[in-house]
């Protein structure tokens, strides 16, 4: 039978003892013999506090078990970085083409610019484009201009030539690059996950029923993505029978239609995977119909209007990720060359287009084999010679 009356609650258990109590900023200030403002700025690595003082206070905080409250830290960051208080703060976008606006002719570079600009403005900074290859603009002069104008945030657009060297006085700037085209110095970077992109493309192409998948690329572009595409392609081939493994065509520095025609005749792929948009045009010149005679998939679709099947690298999001890396450093007052550079890799997504057939339901004997007509190959070579 249930008893009436107030129910007795169990006695409250004492909180477990802690080896070391969490310190507050006030307590740290007393231990350090300085003001709370000085401690707060030192813990945020603010450059207004001498480096020796910052180091001493940070070490004191570690020794005494100080850990910041993440919710309070986030609120204070929002208050400090509201639009009204940082209207003059800006992030610059550096391009390295031979002409000031030449990058606008590249769909990817235009998308990088648009993505960076949208992200910069969405988080409250002003955005500015600077042509880093302007006449008489050395790295030292550019650094002085940025420093004089109190510009601390820098996003570096991809360089035309891979493994480029960029010279700035890095001590004053929070920097991140789009892609990995810069060899020195080693900086924070956001780039496409090229290995994943190629692996996804190969899985999708094979799902369509293609067996003998060829790969075409420029060697310079493989350097730009740390051989991610080639690595995924070769790993994929290790699981295939030898008759399904054409050798890749890796041109050194220029796209060679004659070599492409010879490669097609020798390797006889039933589908070509490449980032080169002109591949489709060369296949047409050789008298091959896509996708009826041969399939095609792109590892970089470049634009949303591209009708081909392939990988969308999402360049707008790549640029936004680079901006976030810069913003993160500025919030923490981290400037100069990073001791441990962060590399953020974004996965691409597959877009179905009109350059692949569904051959998985066809018997092997019915699947067409790409064959370059000799007359067409000769015609393509003459067209190349007179073009």
What do these coordinates show?
This protein has 387 residues and is an alpha/beta fold. It has two domains: 89-193 and 316-348, Rossmann fold (3-Layer(aba) Sandwich); 194-312 and 350-386, Rossmann fold. It has helices spanning 25-32, 36-43, 51-63, 70-80, 107-122, 139-148, 194-207, 219-224, 228-237, 257-267, 279-285, 315-331, 374-386, and strands spanning 90-95, 126-131, 153-156, 164-165, 174-178, 182-184, 188-192, 213-218, 249-251, 271-274, 295-298, 309-312, 343-346, 349-351. The strands form three sheets. The protein has a six-stranded parallel beta sheet with strand order 2-1-3-5-7-13, with helices on one face. It has a six-stranded mixed beta sheet with strand order 9-8-10-11-12-14, with helices on both faces. The relative contact order is 0.12.
What's the topology here?
Layout: H1 25-32, H2 36-43, H3 51-63, H4 70-80, E1 90-95, H5 107-122, E2 126-131, H6 139-148, E3 153-156, E4 164-165, E5 174-178, E6 182-184, E7 188-192, H7 194-207, E8 213-218, H8 219-224, H9 228-237, E9 249-251, H10 257-267, E10 271-274, H11 279-285, E11 295-298, E12 309-312, H12 315-331, E13 343-346, E14 349-351, H13 374-386
Parallel strand pairs: 1-2, 1-3, 3-5, 4-6, 5-7, 7-13, 8-9, 8-10, 10-11, 11-12
Antiparallel strand pairs: 12-14
Helix pairs in contact: 1-2, 2-3, 5-12, 7-9, 10-13
């Amino acid at each position: 039978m249930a008893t009436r009356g107030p129910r007795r609650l169990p006695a409250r258990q004492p909180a477990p003892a802690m080896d070391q109590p969490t310190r507050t900023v006030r307590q740290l200030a007393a231990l350090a013999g300085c003001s709370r403002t000085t401690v707060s700025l030192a813990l945020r690595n603010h450059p207004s506090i001498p480096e020796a003082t910052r180091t001493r206070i940070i070490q004191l905080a570690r020794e005494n078990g100080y850990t910041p409250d993440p919710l309070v830290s986030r609120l204070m960051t929002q208050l400090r970085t509201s639009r009204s208080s940082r209207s003059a703060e800006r992030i610059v976008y550096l391009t390295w083409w031979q002409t000031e606006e030449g990058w606008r002719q590249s769909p990817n570079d235009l998308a990088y610019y648009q993505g960076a600009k949208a992200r910069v403005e969405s988080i409250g900074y002003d955005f500015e484009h600077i042509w880093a290859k302007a006449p008489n603009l050395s790295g030292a002069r550019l650094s002085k201009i940025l420093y004089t104008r109190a510009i601390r945030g820098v996003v570096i657009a991809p360089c035309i030539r891979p493994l480029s060297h960029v010279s700035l006085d890095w001590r004053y700037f929070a920097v991140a690059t789009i892609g990995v085209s810069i060899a020195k110095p080693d900086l924070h970077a956001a780039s496409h996950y090229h290995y994943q992109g190629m692996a996804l493309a190969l899985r999708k192409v094979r799902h369509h029923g293609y067996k003998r998948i060829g790969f075409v690329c420029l060697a310079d572009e493989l350097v730009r993505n740390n051989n991610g595409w080639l690595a995924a392609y070769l790993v994929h081939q290790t699981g295939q029978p030898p008759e399904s493994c054409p050798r890749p065509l890796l041109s050194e520095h220029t796209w060679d239609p004659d070599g492409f025609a010879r490669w097609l005749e020798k390797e006889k792929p039933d589908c070509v995977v490449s980032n080169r948009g002109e591949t489709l045009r060369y296949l047409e010149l050789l008298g091959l119909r896509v996708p009826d005679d041969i399939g095609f998939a792109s590892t970089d679709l470049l634009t949303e209007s591209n009708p081909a099947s392939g990988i969308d690298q999402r360049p707008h999001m790549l640029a936004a990720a680079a901006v976030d890396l810069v913003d993160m450093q500025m919030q923490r007052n981290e400037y100069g060359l990073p001791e441990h550079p962060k590399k953020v890799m974004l996965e691409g997504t597959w877009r179905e287009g009109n350059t692949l057939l569904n051959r998985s339901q066809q018997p092997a004997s019915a699947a067409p084999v790409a064959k370059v007509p000799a007359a067409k190959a000769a015609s393509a070579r003459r067209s190349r010679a007179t073009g």
